[in-house]
Amino acid sequence: MVARAARATDLADLDGAISDCFACPRLVAWREEVARVRRAAFRDQEYWGRPVPGLGAADARIAILGLAPAAHGGNRTGRIFTGDRSGDVLFAALHRAGLANQPTSVARDDGLRLRDTRIFAAVRCAPPDNKPTPAERDTCAPWLRRELAAIRPTLRVVVALGAFAWAAWWPAMRSAYGVRPPSPRPSFGHGAHWSGTGVPDLLGCYHVSQQNTFTGRLTPGMLDEVFARAKQVAGVD
């Protein structure tokens, strides 16, 4: 895994390698079962059923780090946060912030384009119950580290969606930037903001899950504030 990630020459090469990963047996079995059985509403669609690569600009100044693809979202469409309720909320917010050319993301060929932004996940396969194991997170980590290395020249701020992504950032930062994480590590919270020397700023944001958005724990206004701060830190107009 480490060697395959290191051999990727650019983001396109990396995306292809990610999509062909079979490193975690539990995740492989789950993603393929979901793609075979399918949800009734998508019965006539062919599922992607593979790891989901990142999305967005190679010269991104803002990165959005999520947990993992959704079983009937990214695992179906092949594009991160595409085709599920979480993506509906996220891309609407990015559009309001001027970071996406449209407020919806329903399919890989729907014309969506991101501005100064790249989105990726700590784990690239849809996990059962949306809960990857620590071992699966660590196995997948080389993909994240290589992707960060590729966008390092321009990256200025990372928005971590949820505590899992927040925790995944620190070892990835150390690998990509050679900077030791702070000790103790800052606690995750919505609106949390950490700055270090020679590394991107880190912003915390509640995950755009239905559990958070349907209950009002995360509102559109709260998302707008996070992305406004991300743009300010990144120097994006």
Q: Which term fits the overall shape?
A: globular
C-alpha Rg, in Å?
17 Å
Overall pLDDT: 97
Bin the helical content.
40-55%
Main sheet record = 6 strands, mixed
Count of individual beta strands: 6
Gap between N and C termini: 38 Å
Q: Count of helical segments? A: 9
Strand order of the largest sheet: 1-3-2-4-6-5
Please, could you describe this protein's structure?
The protein has 237 residues and is of the alpha/beta class. It has 9 helices and 6 strands, in the order H-H-H-E-E-H-H-E-H-E-H-E-E-H-H. A 6-stranded mixed β-sheet has the order 1-3-2-4-6-5, sandwiched between helices. Helix 5 (85-96) packs across helix 9 (220-234) and helix 6 crosses helix 7 (163-177). The protein is globular. The relative contact order is 0.16. The model has no long low-confidence stretch (mean pLDDT 97).
In short:
This protein is an alpha/beta fold and 237 residues long. Helix content is 41%, strand content 10%. The chain has a six-stranded mixed sheet with strand order 1-3-2-4-6-5, with helices on both faces.
Compile the SSE list and pairings:
Elements: H1 2-7, H2 11-19, H3 25-37, E1 55-56, E2 62-66, H4 74-77, H5 85-96, E3 117-121, H6 134-151, E4 157-161, H7 163-177, E5 193-194, E6 201-205, H8 210-213, H9 220-234
Parallel strand pairs: 2-3, 2-4, 4-6
Antiparallel strand pairs: 1-3, 5-6
